[in-house]
Amino acid sequence: AMLDIDLDDEMLGAGMPCGGSMRVYIEPVLPHPRLWIMGHGRVAESLCLLGDMMGLRVIVNDPSVDWEKYPQANRLITDDIDYTQLQPEACDYVIIATQHKGDHESIKRALASDAGYIALIASRKRSGLVLDYLREEGLPEDEVARVMAPSGLDLGARSPEEIALCVISEIVLVRRGGSGLRMRDKLQQQAASLTAAQG
Q: How far apart are CA 31 and CA 92, in angstroms?
């Protein structure tokens, strides 16, 4: 974007004694969203691949992972037992896939951050237990509600790869502000709304 500055105007410009005008080119540099994957396994591996494909900087945090299984990762953290290196920003996404071994602590750490999306990969039963634990720890309900558990869109997933796709789909929904509807259904809704408005 171009910005014109009047160097003579002391109120709206720069108020420079030299006078004149200046044209400044402004290009915003926004933070690059990161995908923090806490844990390992086939779901985590697929999340890493899909996250990279979606243009996210992928960080995998787990003591038992290796680069060979996460070639798309931008960073691999293997020495963070207490999750202190988990420091997401508001534009970041955190997925807890610790397979029950660090669910509680990693979620509490994620909730202490400004992360824009926090998800738990777990069954409905396990998700309920973790959310109840957070409530028992005294976390307010609005904080507990930040955790997407169970996570992902309902696509009928069965395999680890399909589960990862469901979670990444939810991230795209959050990131881009989508409706979650099938495109055909959305277009039919829009057409029906337009017809109703016209007549």
A: 9
Supply φ then ψ for residue 121, to 5 degrees: -85, 105
Whole-model pTM? 0.82
Average pLDDT over residues 96-125: 93
Average pLDDT of every residue of the chain:
91
Record the tokens describing residue 9, joined without a space: 């105007």
Structure tokens at 107: 């979620």
Given CA atoms 60, 142, 163, 98 in this order, what sign does their dihedral have?
A: positive
**H-state helical runs in 21-102:** 42-53
Query: Domains (ranges, CATH) in the chain?
Result: 1-30 (no CATH), 34-176 (3.40.50.720)
Q: How many CB atoms lie within 10 A of CB 87?
A: 16
3-state secondary structure of 94: strand
| pLDDT digit string, tens, across residues 10-51 | 665 555 667 777 788 888 888 899 999 999 999 999 999 999
Q: How confident is the model at residue 154 (pLDDT cuts 50, 70, 90)?
A: very high
**Rounded (10°) CA dihedral 147, 151, 154, 155:** 150
Is 177 exposed, middle or buried, given 0-12, 13-18 or 19+ CB atoms closer than 10 A?
Answer: exposed
Model confidence at 108, in pLDDT bands (50, 70, 90)?
very high
